Amino acid sequence: MASAVAPVSDRRCFGIRPRRWLPTSLRRSETGATSVSLAGILAALFLGGCATTQTSAPASPPDATAAQLTARSLQDPGLRRFLAANLGHEPATWNLETLSWVAFYYHPSLAVARAQWATARAVATSAGVRPNPTIALAPGYNTTREAGISPWFPAVNFDFLLQSTRKVDLQRAAADADAEAARLGIYTAVWQVRKDLRAALLDATAASRREALLRTQASGQARLLALLEQRRAAGAIAPTEVSLARTALLRAEAAAADALSQSANARARIAAALGLPLEALDGISFAAPAAGTVRASAELATARQHSLQTRADVLAALAKYQAAQAAVELAVAKQQPDFHLGPGYQWDQGANKWSLALTFELPIFHHNEAPVAEAIARRAEAAAQFEATQAQALAAIDSALAAVKAAAAQLGHAQKLRAEIEKQNAVARRRFELGGADQVEVQSAQLDLATTDSLLADAEAAAAQAAGQLEDALQVPFTDLALLAKGNTDSSHPTP
């Protein structure tokens, strides 16, 4: 026994030598082998508690994090490898699909969602771990001892929780359901990132196109104003007609300037949606998101029904309900008391005294009714939240379908109007060639055509926006969506 204790006394735990820490009566002395055995047990237990290693993970300094964020770019080698792995090729153009993967690589909300999933998985792991036994040191002191006998009579009591396997399984089931909800939260974040990116991209490309069309319209208005000025100088028209043309020119120039400002703001929103600094987009041109193909009513009905059962937020709400259901079952299971087994030992002046205690809760004042009622209420709340989430999804899909129909009708009217104005423009040019019209009439017809082009561009942008709204509502999966939960594994861009 002495050889088993000697190595322990030479070890340190937090700077303490266990042998010196023990009471004098528990050291190897005249008390004999029994005291040495107790010292060995206590020392082993104490040193076992010191086996846990804590790792330090200090946060990055703000200046280092800021420098890393501002250094991000579309030419990052890690990003290029990520795009090649997920797209299968180098991006030829920066459109919604390629930029979506850039956002999935950089956007911080996905890293937060993955970290929350990792936390939920850790909670699920700890939920299935049985608690360690406890030990109570109860040294006693005899003030009426006989001479020559040590006054100390130390005692050690243990407590082992004997919890049923069903309770452990229910704790783990609730934690697993919460972890699943956290995993699905990653996909909810993915769709939100894609939604914000599409909206910014649509606004940027639409504003840029609108600005170009308004500049063309302003140029035509300027030419018309010059012609009217000539007529006014010749006394052919009143000055009020010139004034109206000048006001129209100023409005067109103001609208073009406003479109330019909107385009700049939308580019800043694109940078934010990508998780990039605005400077990283200098010199980069973007392709406008497509309006999408028109689906048949039967296909839309099937997609609508499928979406209500597969949307990430709906499945996450269902997982939360499953966690609440497991919590109810656990609360009911806890109406059956847990047992505690408590073996104990006391060394009393050379006498070895052992005890065995069996402890359990007496359901006298309550039978766990309040926790059961609380769990049932939380389950009802989770059920209501699930129904509300499905209702919101249904409303979003119906709203998107209505927007698609309205945008299609608006686009059809704009196309018809544009075709009619183009015919009138051709008639004006033909009349001018035959001498039946002057330049003012021709320029007015061209100005009407430019105005109609702006209306058509707005209608096409609205159709593309409605198509994107429908995709967001249906949450139609796109390529390799499941890989996004894992994050990217590139060493130059670590994930949690």
Give the key terms:
about 500 residues, alpha+beta, four-stranded antiparallel β-sheet, 13 helices, about 65% helix, disordered N terminus, disordered C terminus
What does this structure look like?
With 496 residues, this protein is α+β, with helices and mostly antiparallel strands. The protein has 13 helices and six strands. The chain has helices at residues 2-9, 18-21, 33-49, 62-70, 77-87, 96-106, 108-127, 165-233, 239-274, 297-310, 312-333, 369-433, 439-474; strands spanning 134-137, 140-141, 152-153, 155-162, 339-348, 351-360. The strands form two sheets. It has a four-stranded antiparallel beta sheet, with no helix packed on it. A two-stranded antiparallel ribbon has the order 2-3.
SSE diagram, text form:
Elements: H1 2-9, H2 18-21, H3 33-49, H4 62-70, H5 77-87, H6 96-106, H7 108-127, E1 134-137, E2 140-141, E3 152-153, E4 155-162, H8 165-233, H9 239-274, H10 297-310, H11 312-333, E5 339-348, E6 351-360, H12 369-433, H13 439-474
Antiparallel strand pairs: 1-4, 2-3, 4-5, 5-6
How much beta, percentage-wise? 5-15%
| CA distance, first residue to last residue | 48 Å
How many strands appear in the DSSP assignment? 6
Q: Helices and strands: which structural class?
A: alpha+beta
Largest sheet: 4 strands, antiparallel
Order of helices and strands: HHHHHHHEEEEHHHHEEHH
Instruction: Indicate the radius of gyration in whole angstroms.
Output: 38 Å
